[in-house]
Design brief:
ATP-binding, 11 helices, nine-stranded mixed β-sheet, globular
């Protein structure tokens, strides 16, 4: 299959066969640049310098027994995630949402506010007009300065869209092997799967669930397993991958497959966004698999208490809205109703507002009347 248009190609054209697997040669000079799926600059800032060491575009993840464990907590700048869905260095998380629920906004906040040294952002199969919008408004100069953006728009050939995902991981692996902590974000894994579906069906594969051929479900772990901790002594790739759930069905095939591969999932819900709370994270449906092991006991106690109150309110929400719940029937529900406005305000955060890990716990503790965090023994 072609990587681009085949206009003008015909009998008698010269064909060149390349040897071996294609590689990419990143350097620190690539930071702040925008490249395509083939590693070529598309930002009009001139050619890219070539680094001394190549990284295969289609690489294998580190050996399972040689990999380090996930590291310490990583500050992502969004207090709902920092407090309730704490992410560690080398962890892989999915951001699951329907169209227009705020995935790109969450990604831009993560790119600007996270404490990672380098951010590699893959925009796979996105709208062409959104690239400049994302770079200038969402990412900004500060975010772009420590980022590399890999872009393949929705009108490009499926091979280019698939290649952009591999290129994103290859660039992230280069900085990981230098000993750096890399934040690798990809929007979206679903469009990578759709590109692989086009390729598989064109090659004559049988369609299975929702028309996805078997290679889609084989390629997903090969791609996503490349993120994570490196071998001992190297850095890590913290992966945040968005998944576009079709028709807001969080159990559709790609979402289900990706959820089983990753180390946690962040669910964005349209109903939460419709009532004006952004980021529209449903805390009760989201999970980080490194929690509670990465937290101190006192932090887990605080978070679990807040979760219990949110769960109690959610269970009785319909009756509370209808006025059918009578105060005093259940003390825990009474407490949940009392704290609900403050917890809702805590989860709401502006796109230009950053909250670090310590501030996140301190703000959550203040809701329950704990003025000093951590409390003195």
């Amino acid at each position: 299959m072609p990587f681009g248009s085949i206009d003008g190609v015909g009998l008698g054209c010269r064909a060149l066969v390349s040897d071996g697997q294609p590689s990419v040669f990143p350097t620190d000079a690539w930071l702040g640049r925008v490249i395509n799926a083939l590693g070529e600059p598309v930002d009009g800032k001139g050619p890219l310098p070539k680094g001394p060491r190549g990284v295969p575009v289609r690489n294998n993840p580190p050996s399972a027994h040689a990999r380090a464990r996930v590291g310490e907590k990583l500050d992502l700048g969004i207090r709902a995630i920092n407090a309730f869905l704490t992410c560690c260095r080398g962890q892989r998380m999915g951001i699951f949402a329907g169209s227009g629920v705020g995935k790109s906004s969450v990604m831009s906040m993560l790119a600007r506010f996270s404490a990672a040294e380098v951010a590699v952002i893959g925009l796979i199969g996105e709208r062409g007009r959104e690239l400049q919008e994302f770079i200038t408004e969402d990412l900004g100069e500060e975010g772009l300065a420590r980022s590399i953006v890999v872009c393949a728009t929705s009108d490009e050939a499926p091979l280019m869209r698939r290649q952009a995902a591999y290129m994103t991981m290859a660039v992230a692996e280069h900085f990981r092997d230098q000993g750096r902590d890399v934040l690798c974000m990809m929007d979206s894994v679903t469009r990578f799967a759709m590109a692989q579906r086009e390729i598989g069906l064109s090659a004559g594969e049988p369609p299975t669930t929702k028309g996805y051929p078997p290679t889609v479900f084989a390629e997903l772990p090969r791609l996503l397993e490349r993120a994570g901790p490196g071998v001992a002594g190297s850095g890590s790739i913290t992966g945040l991958f968005t998944v576009l759930v079709e028709g807001d069905d969080h159990n559709e095939p790609i979402a289900d497959a990706v959820r089983g591969i990753l180390d946690g999932h962040i669910v964005l819900e349209r109903q939460i966004g419709e009532r004006g709370r952004y980021p529209a994270i449903n805390i009760l449906r989201s999970v980080s698999r490194t929690m509670p092991g990465c937290n101190a006991p006192i932090e887990n106690e605080l978070v679990n208490h807040a979760r219990r109150l949110m769960s109690s309110y959610d269970n009785m929400a319909e009756m509370i809205r209808l006025g059918a719940y009578r105060k005093g029937t259940d003390p825990q529900v009474d407490e949940a109703i009392h704290y609900q406005p403050a917890l809702e305000a805590f989860l709401k955060q502006g796109k230009r507002e950053a909250t670090n890990l310590d501030e996140s716990y301190a703000m959550l503790a203040a809701i329950f009347g704990i003025e000093q965090w951590p409390p003195q023994e």
